[in-house]
Specification:
mainly beta; 4-stranded antiparallel beta sheet; globular; 56% strand
């Protein structure tokens, strides 16, 4: 019974900040490869950021220096702190975890940034 639930999305002005949260049940994030993906209408889903079991992080070039992925092992929650948001960041953001040979996805949370 694995479930990932994203929250924290919304409509903001360019330059604002949002923090997305991914809460999990049935899976331990510290034992999984975890990432945030996003998908804009008509575009492929793309990796935004990922964090390994060893807490190594990787970001797509367009968000480097603005976004930070982190994991709270006590709360079993993965976060995506998004600062200096741009219009091109507008997308549905999805939480992903790969564990025990299975790829898990949340339902997504909408982030809309006005220009």
């Amino acid at each position: 019974q694995v479930q990932l639930v994203e929250s924290g999305g919304g409509w903001v002005q360019a330059g604002a900040s949002l923090r997305l949260s991914c809460d999990a049940s049935g899976i331990i994030f510290s034992k999984a490869a975890t990432g945030w993906y996003r998908q804009a209408p008509g575009k492929q889903r793309e990796l935004v950021a990922k964090i390994s079991r060893a807490s190594n992080t990787l970001y797509t070039d367009s968000v480097k220096g603005r976004f930070t992925i982190s994991r709270d092992n006590v709360k079993n929650t993965v976060y995506l702190q998004m600062n200096s948001l741009k219009h091109e960041d507008t997308a549905v953001y999805y939480c992903n975890a790969f564990a025990v040979g299975v790829d898990y996805w949340g339902q997504g949370t909408q982030v809309t940034v006005s220009s």
